[in-house]
Structures are given as C-alpha cells and as structure tokens.
C-alpha cells in the first residue's frame, strides 16, 4: 500500500480514502482488496507516469483480473502497456530490464492508429494523443480502443488486426491482459 501511496502522492491522512476505495471494489467485484494492492504495487508508478488516476488504475486492474485471475500478471501487464504506449527510449530500457520483448517497440504507435481504422472513426484510426498533442491516459486509450474492438474484429482480417493491436500495446507475453480489458470496455 505504501508504494501505491507514494506513486499517487497520497498522504497518511488521505490513506483511509484509498483503503475505503480499494475495499469497496474488493467487496463488489471479482478481486480482493489484497489482489488490487498487489497488482497496483507492480504498476502504479508506470500508471501515474502515463497520466492515470488512482480510480483509473483500480478500474484497469479490476477488469483485467476478472478474466485473468492473476493480480501479479495484471500488474506487470499494466506496467508494460503504460510504458509501450509512451514509446520513449527510457520506457524501452525499463521494459528490456524487466524481460519484456521490445523487438518492434519503435513501430508500435504509428501502426496502432492504422490498425484501429474503422468505419465509426471514418477510417482515421484511434488517436492516442489529445487535441493538444499530449498522450491520453492508459485508461482512456484502452477504453477508446475497447469501444471499437468488436468493429475491428468484424472487418476483413479483423482477427489478425486485433492480435496485432494486442501485441503492439502489451507485447507477446502480456497480450492476454490487454484482451481482458479491451473486450470489456463497459466494465471500466
């Protein structure tokens, strides 16, 4: 819990709000309080750096764990996607150090937009940047792609596009975490 508090700059007197939030989710969804904290311990620093609020981090953790049922893997997957989507050399180094595959890392972002081009977005693709050029949060990106996930799959070659999207965002080892999230955007 301390690592999560440090990552989100939550003070000791604000800690009960965090505990209440995590307990509420743990009591109402297919994840325990301990599992949420365990997952966030592995991912919160990367999620904060990627612009995610504590609520978004808990939501991503909960939705992924409902399917995967492995909070350690979920935490590692959320860290991976947060770093891969940013595309910086520092993030690449950190991924390499944690044993993640980075063979196609520099191509991820430009290819992601092409892979998410569907009729509902006038074949422009999903943009991971805001109008002012800043990155959207990991939560916003995954929820946005999740909203068009089914449509991507229904296109010719859509199953291959979906597999490619998951690999670009999560890498080969964590694609199942991404699938659990983008297939359930309404749960976020």
Can you describe this structure in just a few lines?
The protein is mainly α. The chain is 65% helix and 0% strand. Helix 5 (71-86) runs antiparallel to helix 6 (89-97).
In words, what does this structure look like?
This protein is an all-alpha fold and 188 residues long. The protein is built from ten helices and no strands. It has helices at residues 2-7, 15-28, 33-49, 54-68, 71-86, 89-97, 108-115, 138-154, 158-170, 175-182. α3 packs across α4 (54-68), α5 (71-86) packs antiparallel against α6 and α9 (158-170) crosses α10 (175-182). The longest helix is centred in the first third of the chain and has 17 residues, at 33-49. The radius of gyration is 16 Å and the shape is globular. The model has no long low-confidence stretch (mean pLDDT 91).
What's the assembly state of these chains? single chain
Rg:
16 Å
What letter string, H or E per element, gives the SSE order?
HHHHHHHHHH
Shape: globular
């Amino acid at each position: 819990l301390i690592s999560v508090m440090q990552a989100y700059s939550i003070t000791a007197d604000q800690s009960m709000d965090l505990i209440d939030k995590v307990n509420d989710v743990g009591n109402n969804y297919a994840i325990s309080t301990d599992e949420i904290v365990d997952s966030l311990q592995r991912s919160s620093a990367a999620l904060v750096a990627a612009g995610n609020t504590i609520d978004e981090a808990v939501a991503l953790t909960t939705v992924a764990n409902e399917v995967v049922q492995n909070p350690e893997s979920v935490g590692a997957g959320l860290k991976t996607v947060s770093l891969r989507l940013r595309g910086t050399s520092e993030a690449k180094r950190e991924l390499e150090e944690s044993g993640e595959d980075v063979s196609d890392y520099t191509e991820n972002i430009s290819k992601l937009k092409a892979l998410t081009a569907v009729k509902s977005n006038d074949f422009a693709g999903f943009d991971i940047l805001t109008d002012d050029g800043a990155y959207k949060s990991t939560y916003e990106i995954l929820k946005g792609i999740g909203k068009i996930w089914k449509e991507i799959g229904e296109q010719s070659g859509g199953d291959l596009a979906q597999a490619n999207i998951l690999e670009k965002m999560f890498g080969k080892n964590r694609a199942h975490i991404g699938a659990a999230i983008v297939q359930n955007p309404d749960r976020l």
